Amino acid sequence: MDPRRNPYSPGAGTPPPELAGRDDLIQRAAVALDRIRDGRSARSFILYGLRGVGKTVLLNRIRSDAEARGFAVVGVEAPEGRSLPGLLVPALRSTLIKLDRGEGARVAIRKAQGALASFAEGLKVRFHDIEFGWDSNPEKGVADSGDLDHDLTDLVAAIGAAAADRKTAVVLFIDELQYVEEKQLGSLIMALHSASQNQLPVTMMAAGLPQLVGQSGRAKSYAERLFEFVPIDRLNEQSARDALTIPARVEGAAFTDAAITEILRQTLGYPYFLQEWGKHSWDVADSSPIEENDAKEATSRALADLDASFFRVRFDRLTRTEQRYMRAMAELGPGPHRSGTVAKKLGKSVTEVAPVRNALILKGMLYSPSHGDTAFTVPLFDGFMKRIMPAPGSGSGARED
Ligand SMILES: Nc1ncnc2c1ncn2[C@@H]1O[C@H](COP(=O)(O)OP(=O)(O)OP(=O)(O)O)[C@@H](O)[C@H]1O
Ligand SMILES: [Mg+2]
After folding, report:
1. Which of 146, 179, 203, 281 is most open to solvent, judged by the fewest CB atoms within 10 Å of its CB?
2. Alpha-carbon distance 270 to 235, whole Å?
3. Coil, strand or helix: which one is 40?
4. What per-residue confidence (pLDDT) applies to 106?
5. Ligand lying nearest the CA atom of residue 13
6. Closest Cα to atom 12, ligand 1: which residue?
7. Which residues contact 339 (CB under 8 A, 6 or more apart)?
């Protein structure tokens, strides 16, 4: 069918034509934020889940809704290897500029700007990636000790006071939060906790891979009382159908039941894959309705595409040893798997392969759903590993278990 009218949008953070199955969460997030703005108790959300389940688009939706309701929002994505202060300073600076636009006195805002200047000044020796350069004078004695725990608490308090003064709330939206180093994450949770105890309207909504739950808990044991950890998962059958059929209907097209069944069987309801399969089925079909044969052709095209890009870029970031570890896991199926079983498959001991497993967790390729278990963060990665690498033990010189 006409590719110009193809409604599907596979990509990272690309808004889908129909954000299926998330209405309840969007509503609950709005209630929590409104309560925080009013100085009432509420937990904001940390969304966690596998690659491609729709964390970013959901977080962005909660953010744009909040912005429309007058919140001062700050959106950042934590890249690997960047410091939290380096990330926060420019983001908070633009938030303060936004807050400054409102009517009324500016005392609290000037103080917060001063606190931000002190914060940047005091920490820029330790965190070289802090970009600092504007005209506010540092506020003496506030956020300038050089200790991150202390200074971030001061800074968040000053920003909360400025927001309260403007009768709004500041919400930090942080995506890929799992890349923030654990100690720095602890400082952030502590600062937000202190603000919440003082009923200051400043909070964070975040998203990241499943390892985020353990990281936050280890960083600060009270994280769970401050945030609701919300699992974002594949869509249930009805929502997965909606994600496919509603955008088609808007364009005057439909799927046969058999076509839908094939797509659901292949994608397992994972949002990113639904967009890929939707897009390919549309392009393959001559006319509406999209039929089972079209969906089957879409399966081979979508897998070829994924193997060449989505899966491939992740595979290419791995060392040879890491690839071997992932391949051994794949041999055991989609997972999760006991770390001991994976080690055995590689003919090694758990301690021997522990550094490889840890490196893969740090790279965001694996996570540990429970102690001693290991699973892929990318859905359907096991199938890809089997397509791209021979089975362990089948190559020359490889050790058998
Ligand atoms: N609820 C949904 N309904 C339909 N499509 C969705 C839904 N959520 C996300 N998608 C689509 O899935 C794809 C992946 O979404 P997104 O980038 O938000 O995932 P993610 O969880 O942030 O992934 P990653 O962990 O790789 O950052 C996008 O193409 C998006 O349009
Ligand atoms: Mg994302």
Report:
1. 146
2. 6
3. coil
4. 84
5. 1
6. 272
7. 350, 353, 354, 357, 372, 373, 374
Question: 240 and 267 in contact (C-beta within 8 Å)?
Answer: yes
Q: Is residue 394 part of a domain?
A: no
pTM: 0.92
Among 302, 223, 229, 295, which Cα is nearest to 256's?
295
Nearest ligand to residue 232 Cα: 1
Neighbours of ion ligand 2 (CB under 5 A): 56
**What was the pLDDT predicted at 391?**
87
Locate tokens 């041999």: which residue? 331
Q: CA-CA-CA-CA torsion for 53, 58, 59, 62, nearest 10 degrees?
A: -160
pLDDT at residue 399, as a whole number: 42
Expressed in angstroms and rounded, the spacing between residue 50 Cα and the centre of ligand 2 is: 9
Q: Which atom of ligand 1 is nearest to the CA of 49?
A: 21
Q: Which residues contact 104 (CB under 8 A, 6 or more apart)?
A: 165, 166
Give CA–CA dist 291/63, Å, rounded: 38
Of the candidates 293, 308, 323, which is a domain's last residue?
308
Across 41-136, where does the E strand assignment appear?
Answer: 44-48, 72-77
Q: How many domains does the chain have?
A: 3
Could you identify the atom of ligand 1 that is nearest to the CA of residue 57?
18
Residue 400 lies in a domain: no
CA of 52 to the centre of ligand 1 (A): 5
| 101 lies in the same domain as 212 | yes
* CATH number, domain containing residue 278: 1.10.8
pLDDT of 293: 98
What CA–CA distance (Å, rounded) separates 308 from 336? 25
Give the pairing type, strands 373-376 and 337-338. Answer: antiparallel
398 inside domain: no
Closest CA to ligand 1's atom 23? 52
Would you tell me the crossing angle of helices 211-219 and 182-197 to the nearest 10 degrees? 70
Ligand 1 pocket list (CB less than 6 A):
9-16, 18-22, 49, 51-57, 243, 271-272, 274-275
Pick the ligand that lies closest to the CA of residue 48: 1
d(CA 96, CA 26): 26
Q: Check whether residue 247 and residue 98 sit in a common domain.
A: no
Domain of 352? 313-388
